[in-house]
Each structure stands twice: as structure tokens, then as C-alpha cells.
Amino acid sequence: MRKQDKAIIWPAYFDSKRTRQSGRRVSKNIAIQSPKISEIINAVSKLGFQYEVNPEVSYPKKPWIKTGSLFVEKKAPKEQLITQIGKQLLRIRSNSPIKGKK
Q1: All residues at 6 or more sequence positions from 54 whose CB lies less than 8 Å from its CB, including other chains
Q2: What superfamily in CATH does domain 3-93 come from?
Q3: Is the dihedral of CA 95, 88, 8, 64 positive or negative?
Q4: Which terminal residue of the chain has fewer beta carbons within 10 Å of its beta carbon, N or C?
Q5: Model confidence, pTM
């Protein structure tokens, strides 16, 4: 994949605790709390996109935290791609068992 054919995806784009100004790119009803790079990889692969993982990179607004990122093939505009991934993350989270006290 050429660099032009890729979109960089950061976990911060989907974090419900962030504001739009601090990096969230999806609406609150699609956002999830503390998304992990592994969940985003799962969502991207379920959507059928090719991707490359960059595990040791930091989001520019918080360079002291290494969150990782993905280069995802761009089959649609980046905003549509982010929305699709966000909806898939929400489905994944809603299907996972809830951890708590018994």
C-alpha cells in the first residue's frame, strides 16, 4: 500500500472520555471508553480492511503515552472509515461479557 492509500487511525479517535478538541473524531453515541489497539485491530479486520500496526507510537496530543496506531487502507473518505470502525467497536464491546463482581 502506498502512503496515499492509507489512513492513520489512533485509539483517541474513539475514546468517549476525550473531547473533540482533545482528539475524539466520532460522536459520543459511537465512542467507547478507553479503546485498546487490539480492539481496533479486531474491528478493522472484521470490516475486511488491510492494515499495518505501529505499536510503539504516541498520539501527538499526548506524546508521553504510547497507544499505538494503525495504517488502514482507504476505501472511503477518512471520516466514513472512522465512523465504520467506531460502529464496529461498539458492536464488539456490546457483545463482550461484562466484567464485575459476582
Answers
A1: 68, 69, 70, 71
A2: Signal recognition particle, SRP19-like subunit (3.30.56.30)
A3: negative
A4: C
A5: 0.86
